[in-house]
Design a protein that fits this description.
With 257 residues, the chain is α/β, with parallel strands linked by helices. It has one domain. 33% of the residues lie in helices and 13% in strands. The chain contains ten helices and seven strands. The strands form two sheets. It has a five-stranded parallel sheet with strand order 1-2-3-4-5. Strands 6-7 form a two-stranded antiparallel ribbon.
Amino acid sequence: MTEPGPDGRGPAAAVAGPAALPSGYGALLRGAFDAHVHGQPDILAALQLRGSDLDTVRLAHAYGISGWVLKSHLWITTDRARLLQEQAAELHFVVLGSITLNPVMGGLSGTLVELAAAHGARVVFLPTWGSAADVARDGYIAGLLRSAIPSFDRYAAANAISLLTPDGRLSGPAIEVIDACRECGLALATGHAGLAESRAVGALEGVEPVPRGEDRLGARGERVRDRSSLRRGLRLRSGLSRPGLVLGVQRLILRGA
């Protein structure tokens, strides 16, 4: 999974490529599929990540990774994904487009999911910086956007998206999005939703989200108290064919069937 580091740059080891990794790394990475990759530009044009989208594809291929989902916190990535697929055709590297349902993309809308699917998107991320849970905890991405967008705080507060009704049930628009993902064969990830929201999404499918890595603290702050109920991976019907799909509290991870 790739997020910009606190200094606004990707890991220094990425520049050196596979030579910077310990011996035997191939056993972990060969054939892997990363379902959460930020290319460049994302968030802000001035924010330096690993390099261009194409350079990142070449780097991942050198690691032995077979493909990834291109994610943006702001815009749909289907056009970029298709271009990358064409530019890196000789590598046989798979690049899938996605959409993140933040306020700037229209928020929770089944029609928006259908439009994204028709345009080639294969993965839908629920709101990240635009989620009410992320706004409440002043998430990291919000801090980056605030640094360059004077009106960001006002906009985010006015347009924060909750997946739940006041009585704790999934909202109509949230259910509409989940249904549209199912009908269109798209994978769904919970974005920066709160833990209760993530559990409600999983409950609709009869399964529980599984926290992984930093997600064991829930959606960046909410401590998971009953981990025994979160052990099972969440599998959703998906148009990504053979790989199984695991939906984490924040992120989805593809794993071989």
